[in-house]
């Protein structure tokens, strides 16, 4: 019996692999979500897939022998050593890396007060920048690469990136450098001023304090 158990453990070890949030673990028709996994439609289709909800080790478990559902159970065992992980609803601090016409991408640095220990990518879409006049948002007048933003996690998007929102007064750019390389000081909801030259630059500014 011990030899059989060891063999099963060896097989289990072979199946273990590191996964990150949003990674596909299998089709819902073939596997069942366990701990650290969830069901969601694949992109814009009605086909359900099982996804990882955290960073950790993927494990595939055999279904109970007496169960009518004989799909294997796939679960993800999280590692606390990996630091904070973004979750829908939480507030993050991120550094903008690229600004495009319809979205901006950013590297998430902190989840709440805790820093992350691995790379998580955030995407701020045009419709999630502010709550009003969404169709008039010009991404290049809201963010620039290098800006530090406070944002709220909306959901896990495609390609392991988190959708972020700055559509609240307290969310948006909290720290930025001017084109002259000096600190920008917020002077309104949409403007920051270079502390060196006095030049005004457009941003989606976060309201600091009360």
UniProtKB/TrEMBL annotation:
The places in or outside the cell where this protein is found are:
Nucleus, Nucleolus
MF terms from GO for this chain are: RNA binding
Please state every residue range assigned to the domain named Exosome complex component N-terminal: 18-58
Chain ranges of the Exosome complex component CSL4 C-terminal domain:
115-156
Q: Which UniProt keywords apply?
A: Cytoplasm, Exosome
Pfam name, any one: EXOSC1
Keyword Cytoplasm in annotation: yes
Give me the Gene Ontology terms describing cellular component: cytoplasm; nuclear exosome (RNase complex); nucleolus
Query: According to its UniProt record, where is this protein mainly located?
Result: nucleus
Q: Domain of life here?
A: Eukaryota
- Keyword Cytoplasm on entry: yes
Record-linked InterPro entries = Csl4, EXOSC1_C, Exosome_cplx_N_dom, NA-bd_OB-fold
Query: What Gene Ontology biological process does one annotation of this record name?
Result: RNA processing
What is the official name of this protein in its record?
S1 motif domain-containing protein
């Amino acid at each position: 019996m011990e030899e059989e158990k060891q063999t099963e453990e060896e097989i289990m070890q072979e199946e273990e692999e590191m996964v990150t949030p949003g990674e596909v673990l299998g089709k819902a028709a073939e596997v069942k979500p366990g701990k650290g996994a969830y069901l969601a439609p694949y992109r814009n289709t009605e086909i359900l897939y099982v996804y990882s909800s955290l960073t950790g080790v993927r494990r595939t478990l055999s279904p109970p022998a007496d169960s009518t559902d004989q799909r294997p159970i796939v679960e993800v065992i999280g590692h606390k050593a990996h630091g904070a992980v973004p979750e829908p609803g939480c507030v993050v601090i991120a550094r903008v890396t690229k600004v495009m016409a319809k979205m901006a991408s950013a590297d998430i640095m902190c989840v709440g007060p805790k820093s992350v220990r691995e790379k998580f990518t955030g995407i701020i879409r045009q419709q999630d920048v502010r709550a009003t006049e969404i169709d008039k948002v010009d991404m290049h007048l809201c963010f620039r690469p290098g800006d530090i933003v406070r944002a709220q996690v909306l959901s896990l998007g495609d390609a392991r990136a988190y959708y972020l929102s700055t559509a609240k007064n307290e969310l948006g750019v909290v720290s930025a450098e001017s084109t002259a390389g000096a600190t920008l000081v917020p002077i309104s909801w949409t403007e920051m001023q270079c502390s060196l030259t006095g030049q005004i630059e457009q941003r989606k500014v976060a309201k600091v304090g009360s």
